[in-house]
Amino acid sequence: MSVLVIIEHDRGAIASGSLEALTAARTLSSDVIAAVCGGNDAVATACAGYGATEVVDLVHPFLHDYAPQAWGEAVAQLVTARQPDAVIACGTDRGNEVLAHVSVSLDVATVANVLRIDASSAGVWALTRVQWGGSLLEDVTLDAPTKLLTVAHHAYDMVPSEVAEYRTTFTPSLEGSLGSTMVRDRVVREAGVTLTTARVVVGGGRGVGSPEGFAPLEELASLLGGVVGCSRAVTNNGWRNHTDQVGQTGTRIAPDIYLACGISGAIQHWVGAMASKNILAINTDRDANMVTRADYAVIGDLHKVIPAISEEIRRRRG
After folding, report:
1. What angle do CA 203, 19, 16 make, to 5 degrees?
2. pLDDT tens, position by position, 47-82
3. Is the torsion defined by CA of 19, 7, 192, 236 positive or negative?
């Protein structure tokens, strides 16, 4: 059995979700093909470091940057040429978008945001996927000559597995209309740790009380080398930018620890935070959803607890 993995990258910087997808593919087969639109040496090396036995560079002028329709059609043509048993992408915005285009081109159903794959039966796979923003887990079966699916982001840990780098080139035939949607320019944000990559996230909800109330959270995040996130209620109130929002309609995070301060824990927020390795909730309401779901909880006023934690960190550091 062979599995083709759609590799998401941004001008040579491979997405962590694609490394998760490669890890998932290795649980299914020892023949893992990485499809890299545009081709890139650094991406090919990264794929080989996570078990891709072959890296296929898809080369065409439309593929030099992200273009969902062109990427989808290019991968679909590669699938037709190579006939893999399955095609996998990570369930990120881009991964789901590209595989949707592949699905349409091949006229084959796709299953999105899969948490568990049972391929013990060669013809019919048993899958468990996330539905309704994480509030429902659905068991489905997938029966198709070529299985198309995305694995939920953070459902699989990135596990390296070094293999020899074997590269080939594939040149798809793409109509001009497929280049109508393509990244042309970017707004460069300040470099540094982001919500997606941070090992520590200090999140604030409505209980923070005001934009100024985030100052102690910023201080604690700085002491811990982390970043500050927030709930949707905070962005709705205009206290923080949407880019700081953790949740189903914001950023999904997977830090080593998430400190949820004054956050009630609506299901949409929980979906974005549930991949955290550890969650510490700080709240005056012991029955709040975030408190009951957290690994650890402090029942108290965040305006007293957060400064006390920061002070103790400074004291221990001398």
Report:
1. 30
2. 999 999 999 999 999 998 999 999 999 999 999 999
3. negative
How many whole angstroms separate alpha carbon 230 and alpha carbon 263?
Answer: 8
Structure tokens at 271: 């979906």
Q: 52, exposed or middle or buried, with CB in 10 Å at 0-12, 13-18, 19+?
A: buried
Structure tokens at 21: 């997808």
Q: Return the structure tokens found at 302.
A: 């965040």
Contact in structure between 88 and 25 (CB atoms under 8 Å) = yes
* % of the chain at pLDDT higher than 70: 97
What mean pLDDT do residues 12-18 have?
92
Q: Whats the size of the chain, residue-wise?
A: 318
Q: Tell me the average pLDDT of the chain.
A: 92
- Cα-based distances in Å from 37 to 53, 54, 77, 151, 170: 17, 14, 12, 19, 10
Q: Is the CA virtual torsion 28, 104, 171, 67 positive or negative?
A: negative
Q: pLDDT (tens digit, 9 = 90+) per residue, 271-292?
A: 889 999 999 999 999 999 999 9
Bridge partner list, 128: 116, 139
Q: Give DSSP secondary structure letters for 54-88.
A: EEEEE--GGGSS--HHHHHHHHHHHHHHH--SEEE
Burial of 203 by CB count in 10 Å (0-12 exposed, 13-18 middle, 19+ buried)?
buried
Is residue 13 within 8 Å of residue 44, measured between CB atoms? no
Sheet (strand 147-151) strand order: 136-142, 125-131, 110-118, 147-151, 86-90, 2-6, 31-37, 54-58, 167-170
Q: Average pLDDT for residues 130-157, to the nearest whole number?
A: 87
Question: Which tokens in the block code for residue 93?
Answer: 């915005």
Mean pLDDT of 254-266: 95
pLDDT at 187: 64
Return the pLDDT at 94: 93
Residue with tokens 């962005």, as numbered in its chain: 235
Secondary structure class of 245 (helix, strand, coil): strand
